[in-house]
Amino acid sequence: MRPYVDEEKCIACGTCAEVCPAEPVVFEVGDKSKVVHPEACTECEACVDNCPVQAIELKEPDE
Predict the structure, then answer these.
(1) What's the whole-number mean pLDDT along residues 22-32?
(2) Would you call 12 helix, strand, or coil by DSSP?
């Protein structure tokens, strides 16, 4: 499983990067949040649970 960001919903608030416990942090936030280190994801779902606009979901890489 890895996180996917719906860029149409994303408001680039940075919460996903703030709550991500992975090392390195899975997200990089610019104009939108981007998954830059999917291999580091621990599947804790902190990003999913804390995204204020429900723009992140965990799913299998080939879905």
Answers:
(1) 97
(2) coil
Query: Which region, left, alpha or beta, applies to residue 59 given φ > 0 means left and ψ of -120 to 50 means alpha?
Result: beta
33-35 vs 27-29, strand pairing mode: antiparallel
- Eight-class DSSP state of 22: -
The model carries a pTM of 0.91
**Topology of the domain comprising 2-59:** Alpha-Beta Plaits (3.30.70)
Q: How far is CA 15 from CA 32, 35, 46, in A?
A: 12, 13, 10
Distance CA 63, CA 52 (A): 24
Tell me which residue has tokens 């804390």. Answer: 50
Would you kindly state where each structural domain of the chain is located, as residue ranges?
Answer: 2-59
